[in-house]
Amino acid sequence: MDNLKLILAVGETIAVEFKRCGNGVGMDTYETVCSFLNRFGGDIYLGVADDGEVIGLPPNTVQDIVINFVTMISNPDILFPTVYLSPETIEYEGKQIIKIHVPPSSEVHSFKKVIYDRVADADVKVTATGQIAQMYIRKHKIYTEKRVYPYVKDEHLRLDRLPRIRQMAINRHHNHPWKDMTDAELLQSARLYTMDAETGKMGYNLAAIMLLGLDHIIKDACPAYRTDALLRKINVDRYDDRRIVETNLIDSYEQLMEFAEKHLWDKFYLEGDARISLRNAIAREMLVNTLMHREFTSSYIAQFVIEKDKMTVSNASRAEKRDPLTPGNFVPNPKNPIIASFFRNIGLADELGSGMRNLYKYTPRYSGKPPEIVDRDIFRIVVPLDDSYSFDVEANKAHLKHNGNDDCALTEKSILEFLKENPRATQVEIANAVGKTRRGVQEAIARLREQGLLCREGARKNGRWVVHSTIE
């Protein structure tokens, strides 16, 4: 009952829908059933207003409502394919309501020959051929990277890149199997030249095109493919800098990393005795993920956007969960396992799941806040940015606070002693007297005021400092 109370308080979501059901089950209820089946599933509550107020159902109608509902969803002319659902009657504060749990389905369903999808808290008609295709891809977990293109030949690929790729693999593992393979053997080993299991045709697949294809071949296979890199710090309505990346995935990674290195601070950070580039570590995970795990057949344009307070990557995906991803609930699920394996072989990615862990490890050290990762039809990683934040400085502050550092206490004592003799001194004069920076003095004064040892009286220009006590 407490759970229902919370659901009513939160309101309608992508997985919760309220229906008044005053005159029986309305057609919009079946639209919601259809959209839930096509998305993540969800719960429908009959007898509840849109704002979460429990209206209730007349007790003598509940059984008829259940029977009519089950009859409708069992009719293939109404809902196709049909499903079996078991409505549950609930009593809440003396009123009866009906709960219908709709599980996600492995099929694409239609209501009266119209396909519906769940977007936020709305049921949306899906009519575009591309959108419908995406739903089938999502439902059947089709790996579009495996699609074979029998008319793509060697001359359509950058096979001249293979020596460099082979060396990258050797640099990662000295005795890598690709070391002694011919180019043809390497391509087959990497599963870039395969057989179409349905037609029996041999050829290069979409993974090969995305990894090694000439730019115009990539465009022919995936017309909407590109990554739009934008800097929006001053001109937020347009951009301050832009780079459109439309080449193969390996070169795309290098171009996007150059954009990140150009516009992001490379803050000092030590991990043990080794300096780690937090900027590169975070950007690498974000960019590798958006290149490896996107759905290339989608018309959605992937983006890498750097703003004043955050940077974001977004790309089309095949979502299986609706919750934000965290290390606690994350289960590795490569959208393009062939491409992901290729990236791991050449050292641009580590084992599955490591990118998630690295983002949650390094982002707080870079900006003081955790990242946000959400996998829906559009996959997003949002990393907060704070140019003024320094993990090194903050860690030192925490150390000083925890250990009562003598230098910190000595600075505060020197300031109090100086101000007892010079109550009208400016912060610059204080800094010169105690041998600290102005910012250091500001921080020390803030601590002293917080402890009640120091206060300020009078106007800003003509006021004076009043020392209430000294530090022993």
What is the topology, as strand order, of the major beta sheet? 13-12-16-17-19-18
Rounded to an integer in angstroms, the radius of gyration calculated over CA atoms is 30 Å
The CATH architecture assignment of the largest domain turns out to be 2-Layer Sandwich
The portion of residues forming beta strands comes to: 15-25%
Report, as a whole number of angstroms, the end-to-end distance: 59 Å
CATH top-level class of the largest domain:
Alpha Beta
Tell me the helix content. 25-40%
General description of the model:
The protein has 16 helices and 21 strands. With 472 residues, the protein is of the alpha+beta class. The chain folds into four domains: 138 residues, Schlafen, AAA domain (Methyltransferase, Cobalt-precorrin-4 Transmethylase, Domain 2, 2-Layer Sandwich), CATH 3.30.950.30; 78 residues, no CATH class; 139 residues, Heat Shock Protein 90 (2-Layer Sandwich); 64 residues, Arc Repressor Mutant, subunit A (Orthogonal Bundle), CATH 1.10.10. The strands form six sheets. A six-stranded mixed beta sheet has the order 13-12-16-17-19-18, covered by helices on one side. It has a four-stranded mixed beta sheet with strand order 1-2-5-4. The chain has a four-stranded antiparallel beta sheet with strand order 3-6-7-8. A hairpin with a 2-residue loop joins strand 14 and strand 15. Helix 9 packs antiparallel against helix 10, helix 14 crosses helix 16 and helix 15 packs across helix 16.
